[in-house]
Amino acid sequence: MLSAGMFVADRYEIIGKIGAGGMSDVYKARDHILGRNVAIKVLKQEFSEDVNFVVKFRTEAQSAAGLEHPNIVNIYDVGSESGMHYIVMEYVEGVTLKTYIEKKGRLTYKEAVSIAIQVGRGMEAAHAKNIIHRDIKPQNILISTEGKAKVTDFGIARAVSNNTISADVMGSVHYASPEQARNGFVNDKSDIYSLGIVMYEMVTGRVPFDGETTVAIAIQHLQEEMVVPSVYAQDLPISLEKIILKCTQKSADRRYANISELLRDLKEVLVNPNADFVKISDGSQNRTRVISEGEVREIKSARTLPPEPKKEEYAYPAKEQDEEEEEEEGFLNPRLEKAVTIGGILAAVIIIGIVVYLVGNILGIFGGTPKKQKEPDTQESSVINTEKAKTEQVAMIKVMGMTFSEAKSALKEKGLGIWEAGKQASDEYEAGQIMSQDVEEGAMVDVHTTINVYISTGAGEISVPNVEGYDSEAAINMLQDHGFLADRRYEYSDTVASGKVISQSPSAESPAKKGDTVQIVVSQGKEAVAVPGVLNKPQEEAVHMLTQAGLNVTSTSTEPSDTIPKGNVINQSIAEGKYVDRGTGITLVISSGSNKTYYWTKFTVSAPDSDDVVSGDIVLIGSNGTEIQSWENIRKFPHTITANDIENCDSGTIKVTWHLSDGSTSEQTQNVIFNKQ
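Predicted structure:
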């Protein structure tokens, strides 16, 4: 397992683990060559030695590496190291669409359409290269802090080919198309179906099909009619509802022909939301599937059921790691490839699941007593209808006006459940009372049905959304979408990037009235300060000046100087007057004093015993050949000479030129040892 501080490929420094999936772990890392943060997906150790898993893992990168689009998470690199297989991807600062929906309850139709258009554009780019995503779901859609939607995790994407029909059923069951559920031919219309389910969840806050097992959910995709989204979102425009219904037709032929057609209608919604321009072709929906005699025999011959798949725990790079478990994301464990092979049966997995509650109870093939059946009176007497058996029903009671605990107790007596879908302001119901229920009083429902309710926060009060860490413009838009006014002020921050929200008041999730003002504090980044000049200042004084200016003296060094006194500043790493971020480090060079050695000499020159000497010129020459000092036209001898501050020279020569009365000259030299000053 990788940990913070470790390096991958001598390039990517691990910052920390940010998520996990069924096959891989995801880490945030720093690319030290390009100077950017990245996300690294690493195949789990238990799968690294399995050739099939490794191939699937590398296929992910090969499928997506050629995709470059603003609404697709880019693949940067792929490699292996010491038996570890990894993919380097773009790191997106933000949250998954799943988390975003959970926080907001449900989205406005405009916001949902905007996200759907962005996702559709990314899918359009992939489909243009014959790449089907196969796993479109909110967990694989990232919403950046700037509000941009990006499609990620092409983990089960594969180029369209003739063998697509035999590809393993992978994808998340809540969003899987009927053809995926029965392991049939998958094409771009399968992605359109999944996007339709995502749009349904965005505008309603729920998925259309749910159940206790993945098999049960898959059967619903195949057989059951979808509750129209307007039942849960009464303000939903008719155009968007029909788009969702067209995308989620059980017959692929009745869906949009391609993603481009869908994008055109989505854009039209923003212009004419209430126009009825979406056309859904006539034709019967695929209803209850009838199992053939051959399939029944195949079921009866099966001895074991496939294991329930592990719950997916994958959460893509986000601004904040969600600690809650994510919903089930896969309804076939990849290891099922080696355990189950049912040739010629397109619905093997689903049929094997159905045996639990159909064949086992009806035919008694698992040792139970077969149920007595009514004698068939048609030619279809040899087939089994997979429609669910009738269950006991009860009349729904009114829970509005009750507290949640009161409603829970009342519903429990009737064998019903309750789920808090969110909180909303209400002028009719007091805070803490149930203000709405999604099943009307008196409606007949199956026992064990769970209803969704909203709890009142009081008159005119709603929860303030969390906008900390968001770009200021995105934060203001979010607050306005919730009915609040926004006021912002700016502060410097050493930890929060410029333009991001540092804090808010009232705080997130606090109750407030629509129209109230939420004040946000926006970061200006680190404060800029002017660098003071400290050249030729004593070290202690220089450090004090820089500290007072908000800078840090990170290091000092010494150098000799013939001009700057010992202990004073020779050089500063950032020039005087330049503006830098508060807290910036600066280095100083301190004088160690001069490195020169100085000498002096005193010498008496006597004239020769001759009356011909008129005068003399004296020159003091150092041992390095440099003239140190000279004296000219000396006429009185003996003559004493003195020389001081002789640099780095401890000896020399005195040269005397004698001028004679006849106009001629003669020379005399003598070596001299200098004295150290």
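Summary: The first strand starts at residue 7 and ends at 8.
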